[in-house]
Amino acid sequence: MSGDAPLSAAEKTLSVLEALADHSRIADIADASGLPKPTVHRILQTLVQRGFARSDGRGGYLGGPRILSLAGRFLQRLDLAEHVRPTLRALQERTGWTVHLALLSGDEAVYVVKLEGTRPYHLASRVGMSLRLHCTSIGKAILAAMPDDEVRALAGRAGLPARTPNTITDPDDLLLELADVRARGYAEDREENEAGVRAVGAAVFNHTGEVVGAVSAASLVEFAEAPRELPDLVVRAAAEVSRALGAT
Description:
CATH class of the largest domain: Alpha Beta
CATH architecture of the largest domain: 2-Layer Sandwich
Largest sheet: 6 strands, antiparallel
Pfam family, one: IclR_C
Oligomer: single chain
Domain IclR-ED: 66-247
Number of domains: 2
Domain HTH iclR-type: 7-65
GO molecular function: DNA binding; DNA-binding transcription factor activity
CATH topology of the largest domain: Beta-Lactamase
Distance between the termini: 19 Å
Strand content: 15-25%
Protein name: IclR family transcriptional regulator
Radius of gyration: 22 Å
Order of helices and strands: HHHEEHHEEEHHHEEEH
Number of helices: 9
């Protein structure tokens, strides 16, 4: 680690704790934290005493039970929808479109936030409503973050029913569409879920890099005027939500 001022004891301890998430050997933790081995060893001993670390029995260290306990208690108090609402509100204000956050639930996704757009209409979506993955921008953004074999398996379980004449109903066509989504970084719903509605969506990831949902901005086609940077705005909002979930 670099910097003009010496690290405080708290900063040293946090550096070791962060390094412990990816390393177990003292030498590796020292390299990752930029601290001398004796300092790392001393801090690890304190963490073991307090239950934040434990010996793996082979000269290395692992996270201790108090880390899981604290994480669980914080997660119980974390209302994700409220935590990320300012990010979603900013997207809604920049675009004027209706903004959604949906989380993956089995073979579907469920809306957990909906912020109405500025136009005098209301989309049929609502918090708590489930949505198909193959025909929505949120769903296609989620599927694009999965391997093709998982997508085929999901399509086999859930089917690819036609919601409108534009819905993709063939697995091979869906995989081609998802390849395009991966290439450009966002998904589009071109009146595939509901006639007269278009949307742009981007995936949301958790601290392990696993896709857990997506953010979208949607509008009636007749009112679908939006900033040229709309896809970038949606992607940035999804990235901010991901960071709120611990993604790097």
